[in-house]
């Protein structure tokens, strides 16, 4: 297939592109910068210059593709980012309407009190003012408009050497504060997946997932946050310290509130549906290496 990929040079996207190329697909990658364009071109990817605000570029990429994988995100977690995500998904979905072509988008985890969340739990987020602009439900609604939508919900910790996401931010916060924080007793849990496993799931999803599928890119259902904080403390030779929810936000900003959440998540249905078996290192194994602790 000819696959248009937004976020093609990003943390998950670049690894996913490698998997897709290995599967024999022709890739068109959205590139915002000269460096991103060069890295994609070096892999043999056709480059389309632009970003999420270039709606005509998104239409062009979608119009010329057999399938679209939307992984780009502004990652500012504010109203502007939510709005941009919603408009991007709507623009791509409208272009694909009536074609039966595949649209795979990235989603996030949603906690379910008292148990692990599953693929059967629908996102509570609807409308442009909700997290990610309600893009997951918006994308799934395009099944009624002749599109083949697929959602991949990624664990908050897609980890590995070179990670510059939330775990890297926790490391940076610990280094600045002089201690590694967890909230309360740190019994709340974060799901995790290695980057290589997440990329393999993206490739499997675009190849095999049925219309309307919700997939969970989760290898570990929930790593206790006190264990994450202690591993970071060991890597930096600092103490691990319990803080209140209020102090966590003072210490880490919005990430402090997120780190206090219990996000236990299952991927049993995903593994059964696609034959996906995570094989990469665990989060704590990665945190025993030195890759997270270089300045």
Automatic annotation (TrEMBL):
Residues 118-129 have a biased composition (Basic and acidic residues). Residues 108-137 are annotated as: Disordered. CDD domains: SDR_a7 (cd05262). PANTHER family: NAD(P)-BINDING DOMAIN-CONTAINING PROTEIN-RELATED, PROTEIN YEEZ. Residues 3-208 form the NAD-dependent epimerase/dehydratase domain. It holds the Pfam family Epimerase. SUPFAM superfamilies: NAD(P)-binding Rossmann-fold domains (SSF51735). This is SDR family oxidoreductase. It comes from the Bacteria.
